[in-house]
Amino acid sequence: MVVDGAVNAIAVAGSTVVVGGSFAHAGAYTGGFAVVPAAGGAPASLPAVNGTVNAAVPDGSGGWFLGGSFTSVGTTAIANLVHVTAAGVVDTAWNPAPDAQVNALALSPDKKTLYVAGTFATIASATRNGLAAVSTATGSATAWNPNANAAVSELVLSPDGTTVYVAGAFTAVGGVSRAGLAALDAASGAVSSTWNPAPDNTVSALAVSPDGSTVYVGGSFATIGGSPRSGLAAISSAGTLRVGWTPQPNGAVTALALSPDGNTLYVGGAFSSIGGQARSKLAAVSASSGSATGWDPSPDGSIAALAVSGDGSTVYAGGTFTVVGGQARQNVAAISATTGAATAWQEDADATVSVLAVTSTSVGVGGGIASVGMQTRSNIAAFTTSGTLLDFNPGANGAVSALALSPDGSTVYVGGSFTTIGGQARNRIAAISLGSGLVSSWNPNANNTVLALAVDGSGTVYAGGTFTSIGGATRNRIAALDATGAATTWNPNATSGQVDAIALAGTTVYVGGSFTTVGGQARNRIAALDASTGNATAWNPNASAQVNAIAVAPSGSTVYVGGSFTTVGGQARNRIAALDASTGNATAWNPNASAQVNAIAVAPSGSTVYVGGSFTTVGGLPRNDLAAVDSTTGTPTTWNPNASAQANALALTSGGVVAGGQWTTLGSTRVPNVAVFPFDAPVATTLPAVSGTPTVGSSLVCSTGIWANNPSSYAYQWLRDGSAIGSATASSYTLVAGDLGHQVACRVTATNAEGSTSATSGAVAIVATPQNTSAPIVLGTASVGSLLTCDPGTWTYSPAFSYAWLRDGAAIAGATAASYTTTPADDGHALACRVTGANAAGSAVATSAAVAIAAAGGGGSAGGGRSKQRRLDGRRLERRHGR
């Protein structure tokens, strides 16, 4: 889920998440690239790129090559260059893995080669500085290696695929001096000796005419090709500047695109005049004369990307704008190539769109974005917990600061600074049907901002803020409202400051803010009020500065508070504390946040306290604006979203925590302003292990392993070769005949209130007593002083071997290795080796055939066809096997 402004409040009803704040659009999270239908509609389901996409090229088969600066796509770790197939999955076999960002891509006409430009030094394990060509089939680098001496930012291929035009910060390519612009042979990588326009400043955009005769160059240069040309020029494929073609934009050019017939050049940039006409940031000029046409969409912001549909009827523009072609369009638009008016196609993006690519049926939209296809949602929106935007669209004309749900979840109460919502006049507080989005007749009419809301089990709505009248009565900063919207008699009367937080627990209403009196008592910034009388109870933690957030532990025994205080409950506590619900005293729990805490939520098990604010450390550990803290020790858990700016709101779902605020990134991923995180489910720090004898009829026992996050229960499943074994779900398992020869492991599932996680032990082979199926063999020369080796033969069930050497059938003392060096004592005797094969099931013995040992110099060999030589009375007597 994505909204394009701050989130101040969150409410959860089952699988529905309602967010309120100061935003104009909301949409599903798509990541840095999305594919939307050319006819309009929801983006295709693609794995989300977790960073910036700088370049996109259709692969010709329904998929896409994407380049940029990212570390993962969907759940696949893959850096800077990826192929997403037509099925919408990452092609994990294709992974050139450039070591730095990719800025531009071009696909050869035969679709076999992808040309890549960027800041990388290696790609596909090959040294390639800024430029490379990779096989689209394998991802391996080809021999093409122009070797730029600095970053390459732009790359375009001639229509016939023979020339690659490149631009960037380089001063040399392939050892040849080139001032940021060059033409390269697409086969060899050789630098053209004739094409050298030498602009005097940056080139930001390139386009080639359909016939390949002209290269259009845009940027911030003043001269190119040796002549004055302000930001835009046409250069022939031979390298000559077109004489007389002088559109002369009065500002930089950042994007170019040609009509399919090559007659019109669409130009985006920072100019206010071009081709002799007033044109703000976007224009069309004649490709032949350079004069501006009548086409004038007049965007109210910058243009970073342009593309033209295959039939030439539509120009797609991306950038940072809110109006173009006379219509409200957020950062991306489709514009009639005839009239310059925006078409009905509306796929608003949450941030600057810098990449556009078109096919016959779809438009690829990319950049440093998180969502494409966003819809208008003024300060309030609803999503599913999986991130799908719902139709719920009341639309408030001012900020929403507080949300609360009716007991049955059918109504959402809204507080803030608005004066209309859902098309109805409602001053700062309203009730809206969560199903229809319609505003009810409930109308308390607060005279100033409502900052906090809570609803009890009977439907009474508690409101806090800066108002002095609400529900038709004088009520200073806090009130209780009935089903008609009228104020009840409950009137704690906070006489100064404001009320920022309300939490309910039984008959107690906990309140926090900047007040100094409430419920008839002096109470500095925090109090407990009787839900019947409105009087302050004796509970008095006395915070030294503002309290922004209150949450009560599931047990009711502890009240967690956050704000900007440095003392509370009688103790030094920096901005966060746990207070005893009976005494108001601070407990020993002390996470010590480095800056303000705005929101607190406690996990259902009570084991974890989630915290949001503007801090940079909690518990002495780096935690930017979001943290999860162990409720016993006060030590942060490993949960660390690392938000880029403050968090304002937290709420719980059945399986996680929803956080909202004013950030743009979480870690290195652009996920602006709102996100859903799973609770801290158990994590295995040591895997389960199987013990016992792995033989049929024996029992194996599975240990749980060691787990973090306090599992409350464990479940077991025994596996045979990775598949579950029927009803084998106890911690022990008796092996059966069907397990023999297979691998058995156990899977343990640990569960706490936050979720379940599984971990699997190593597998053990189930064996029977070994059997020898091919006898041992003695190898080597059968003579005194030679080294003999015992080959154990072949055995079933993978035994371990031990050895004994035999002389004429009797064991030779100490001869228990796999090899044996014969001695004079063996002369004339027969040697054999005895092998014992043993595993967990038992052991068996096998003995080799015996070999006769000759005296030294007699010769002979053991094993296979043997020969033996012996000297007698000075004569040689030769005996051979078989003779």
Question: If you had to describe this structure to a student in words, what would you say it looks like?
Answer:
The chain is mainly β. It contains no helices and 92 strands. The strands form 34 sheets. Strands 75, 76, 78, 79 and 80 form a 5-stranded antiparallel sheet that branches. Strands 85, 86, 88, 89 and 90 form a 5-stranded antiparallel sheet that branches. It has a 4-stranded antiparallel sheet with strand order 1-4-39-36, with no helix packed on it.
Which SSEs are present, and which pair or pack?
Elements: E1 2-3, E2 6-13, E3 16-22, E4 25-27, E5 33-37, E6 52-58, E7 64-69, E8 72-73, E9 76-77, E10 81-84, E11 102-107, E12 113-118, E13 122-123, E14 126-127, E15 131-135, E16 152-157, E17 163-168, E18 172-173, E19 176-177, E20 181-185, E21 203-208, E22 214-219, E23 223-224, E24 227-228, E25 232-236, E26 253-258, E27 264-269, E28 273-274, E29 277-278, E30 282-286, E31 302-308, E32 314-320, E33 323-324, E34 327-328, E35 332-336, E36 348-349, E37 353-358, E38 362-367, E39 372-376, E40 380-384, E41 400-405, E42 411-416, E43 420-421, E44 424-425, E45 429-433, E46 450-455, E47 461-465, E48 469-470, E49 473-474, E50 478-481, E51 499-505, E52 508-513, E53 517-518, E54 521-522, E55 526-530, E56 547-552, E57 558-563, E58 567-568, E59 571-572, E60 576-580, E61 597-602, E62 608-613, E63 617-618, E64 621-622, E65 626-630, E66 647-652, E67 656-661, E68 665-666, E69 669-670, E70 674-678, E71 683-686, E72 690-692, E73 699-702, E74 706-708, E75 713-720, E76 723-724, E77 732-734, E78 743-752, E79 755-760, E80 764-765, ...
Antiparallel strand pairs: 1-4, 2-3, 3-40, 4-39, 5-38, 6-7, 7-10, 8-9, 11-12, 12-15, 13-14, 16-17, 17-20, 18-19, 21-22, 22-25, 23-24, 26-27, 27-30, 28-29, 31-32, 32-35, 33-34, 36-39, 37-38, 41-42, 42-45, 43-44, 46-47, 47-50, 48-49, 51-52, 52-55, 53-54, 56-57, 57-60, 58-59, 61-62, 62-65, 63-64, ...
